[in-house]
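Async update (no meeting this week)

Hi team, since we skipped the sync, here's where things stand on the single-chain job. The sequence we agreed to prioritize is pasted below, unchanged from the tracker. I ran it this morning and attached the output directly underneath so nobody has to dig for it. Comments welcome in thread, and please keep replies under the output.
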Amino acid sequence: MITIQQIKIEMKIEKANQRLELADLLDSKEVLMKKAAKILGIKATDVSEVTILKHSLDARKKPQIFQVYTLGVTLQRKDLEERVVKRCKNNQIAVHNQKQYEFPSLGTTGLTQRPVIVGTGPAGLFCGYLLARHGYRPILLERGQDVDTRTKDVEAYWNGGSLNPESNVQFGEGGAGTFSDGKLNTLVKDKNGRNQEVLRIFVECGAPEHILYESKPHIGTDILKKVVVNMRNDILKNGGEVRFGAKVTGLEIRDGALCGVVVNDSELLLTTQAVLAIGHSARDTFTYLNQIRIPMEAKAFAVGMRVEHPQSLINECMYGSEHGNLLPAAPYKLTAQTSTGRGVYSFCMCPGGYIVNASSEAGQIAVNGMSYSDRGSGRANSAIIVQVTPEDYGVDGPLAGVAFQRRLEEKAYLIGKGHVPVQYYGDYKRDQISQNLVGSDSLQPDIKGNYAFANLRGLLPLSCEQALIEGMEQFDKTIKGFARENVLLAGIESRTSSPVRISRDDTLQCPMVRGLYPCGEGAGYAGGITSAAMDGIRVAEQIAMQGRPAAVTI
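Output:
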């Protein structure tokens, strides 16, 4: 197969009554074949097949908008491919040599027990999926509930019910990513094909095929819920086990090696291989690990506010006024370096999404963003966050960042009187409480969960507030209207990434406990769904290299 990069085709956008879907935008196979043949200097009839490897939109010359493709081109005669590439003398054209993912050869010894995976977020789920597919019959322990029960608990909380501390936006099947935008882009370099393997498995389990080639792939909460159930069923079909309401409350360690995990303070589950894929909201688990002297350290992360705009404002900036209402809801990515020395940037941007109450502890409020697959809410939101380091936490120790998060979330709870506190940006700058301006042109909150107008000043440390305002004003130069008076803020965005890193060595094991594998975002080794899933695959590989499945002889 031949790869052709940076193929640009101008879009011919017809007026329509509704926003176009991605499938409506893509050029036909016939058009792509003709374009590829022209670039390669061959006849269209010489092309057997074209495959979209990457796709994005380029609106830098709006109102002209271009589709940008990387295509995989298969010729009718395989022997012509190298000859055609050599003749073209174009660095955008090459023989396709993308590395296909391969699970490593299994170790020569046999494991004595089944591996245990603590947590079913992306890291734990993908680790369990790979191990189950290769005969290890893993046992997955999830403190929260299955996705259907969890959805009912979350919606009951959003509708004014009580918070379930073990079944919420943070805890349960699929992890925190289940109630998110399902964004799958990552900056992790992928020399071993793990990134593409994650996307392939998602598609195999029910995600749309376009995530394989879109530059900023996303699934959406509605589809992601079905995907994680299909992954669970595949684990069960291959001999694995998934337990819900199964909280790991202790570890059994002898002579520096793991020999078991304690579940719900009552059951000892024997194992010599356990994966700590606990997620960064498992604060009680971090406390326990610190008490038994598992090595860990506080790490930098970022905090800020969810900021909500009309999606039309973002679309018009990205696509232009002529096409803004016809193309898919546009994302943005913004960064600023402020005079305080703190970086400010957008995070977890949700086109056509919702702000959600993502709390997991009583007496505290944390927010996040999510969207469904259609990204059709008419609102755009993202976290605008400020970098913080251990020097900002006010206390020392591995859990200093956790204590810092809790203080912020407790403040948010008090400011909002138990609800998500919201404020218009103009009032935030003036340090005054916002009023609910019903009937005005101010953006009315569209939040999953109860909210209350409040004054968010004083919620963040003063230097962070100054940096946030400065960053917003800089972003307004890129997206006109980004920092207008009636933009909505909601607080507090405090769960951006883990404030803790659990130490591990080159074999991905805890240096003090053989057989214990800190993994994923909570352990400090990932920053999103895809990178966490890739880390789960890495840990599965390491377990496989330690030995063959229990009760299997070579």
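Quick observations from my side:
The radius of gyration is 25 Å.
DSSP finds 13 helices and 24 strands in the chain.
Reply here if anything looks off.
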